[in-house]
Amino acid sequence: MARRSGLARPRALGPGALVGVCAPAGPLLGPEALDQGLAWFEAQGWRVRCAAHLRERRGYLAGDDEQRLGDLLALLRDPEVAAIVALRGGYGITRILRHLEPGELVAARKLFVGYSDTTALALLLRRAGLSSIHGPMLDRDDVPDAARERLAALLRGAPAALEPLHGKPLAPGRARGPLVGGNLRMLCASLGTPWEVDTRGVILFLEEVGEQPYAIDRSLGQLRDAGKLQDVAGVAVGQLVNCRSERYPETSPCDVIRDVLLPEIDGPVVSGLPFGHLGDNRALGVGVLAELDGDVATVALLEQVVEDGS
Q: CA quadruple 78, 81, 82, 83: dihedral positive or negative?
C-alpha cells in the first residue's frame, strides 16, 4: 500500500523477527502477565529479548533513569531487534525522552508498541517522522484473543489491521487525517515540550483512566486553550475507565465530552471506542492516515503502520 501519511514506517515483522521488551516507565507488577505476554509473542513465530533491567524496581519506576534509558537505547541500537514493546505505563518515560535523538529514532526504524505513559514517546516518534502502535503492552493478563489478533495484524501489516473499530456517535460527518493522540493527561503534559502534540488536521484520539469528570473537564479545557482543538479534523474517544465521581454522580465523563469538547470540534466525534486502559485494548496506528465516520461511529486505518503491508 502506498504511503500517504508522509511518515517513515518501520518494517513489518516477519517469521523469526526479534521483539525487544523493556520497561521505560513503571515497574513490573504482575510476573504472570509478563510471562503470558512473552509466550504469546513466541507463539506468533517471533523471538523475544528482554532488556537487562526489565524486572528492576525503584519505587514507582522500573529502575533508575540510567537503567531504563540504557535498556531502551540498547534495543534501539541493536540491528537485530525489529520491534520494541513497553512492559507497562505508569510514570517515568518523560524523565528520559530528552536523551533520545529524533534522527537516531528514524534511522533505526524500530516499531514501538505502548500506550498510557508511553504516549509521550509516540508523540516524539511522530514529531521525528515515524509511525508507531498504540496498543497492548505486557502488564495485563486479561487481553482477549481479538485484541491480540489485531495487534499481530498491525505488526505484520496484515489486512485485518485495517478493519474499523466501532463506537457511539456524538457528532456526525466524515473526516480523514493522521491518527494522533493517546492518554489525555499525557497529551496535556506534552504542551511546551519538544514532543508537544501537533493536532493540525489530525484525527485526535483520547483515552483516560482514574480521572474524575472535573479533571477530564480541566484537561480538555487545557487542550482547548492551548489551541489544540481548533484545527482537528475529528475526535475519536476511547474508554474512560474508572472516571466517574462518587461526590458528583450526576455528571458522567461523557457529559463532559459533550459539554467541553463538542462545541470546539467542527467535524465528527465518536465515543466509546474499544481502546484504552482495559484488557480489550484494540491497537491503533499513531501517525498513519485514518478515517473517522461520525454517522456510523467507526474509526479505521487507511494505511498500514509498517512497510510491506497489503
A: negative
